[in-house]
Specification:
This is Carboxymuconolactone decarboxylase family protein. The protein is about 65% helix and about 0% strand. With about 150 residues, the protein is mainly α.
Length: about 150
């Protein structure tokens, strides 16, 4: 499959905006691993190859185990994730699959996340899920590929 747009170099204003989103999400006191997990899970759900690839590589570079990385798609069935991580992953799944549910983000999902994160942290998690979904939709629509720099 060939990319529909080959030059994906962002415009300067877009780069500034993305940097601000990143700074905002990552400065709210949410553990970085939580933000990386929600990014990876949303990207997997959306079929975004470059984001899933970069997300897994970033987590591995940060010292994540293969057990955890390989289990993200089946996080409910494994013992590898903490309760706060599980709450964030569940929130990411619901916030990503909004059209699939009559109640897109049920109170129980939100309430569980709120047990583990402050309001500021929840805002950052939601912002990061939305940012991930934004880039996933651009990459999938334009058929961007994961880089071929294995090794």
């Amino acid at each position: 499959m060939e990319p529909r747009i080959k030059n994906t170099t962002p415009q300067p204003d877009l780069t500034k905006a993305v940097n601000l989103l990143y700074k905002t999400a990552f400065s709210a006191g949410v553990p970085k691993v939580v933000l990386e997990l929600v990014h990876l899970r949303a990207s997997q759900i959306n079929g975004c190859a470059p984001c899933a690839d970069s997300g897994a590589r970033a987590m591995r570079q940060a010292g994540e185990s293969d057990d955890r990385l390989f289990a993200v798609p089946v996080w409910r069935e494994t013992p590898y994730f903490t309760e706060p991580e599980r709450a964030a992953l569940n929130l990411a799944e619901y916030a990503t699959r909004m059209a699939d549910n009559p109640d897109p983000v049920p109170d129980a999902v939100w309430d569980e996340a709120a047990k583990h994160f402050t309001e500021e942290q929840l805002s950052a998690i939601v912002l990061w899920i939305a940012t991930t979904n934004f880039f996933n939709r651009i990459n999938v629509t334009t058929r961007q590929q994961a880089p071929q720099n294995w090794g």
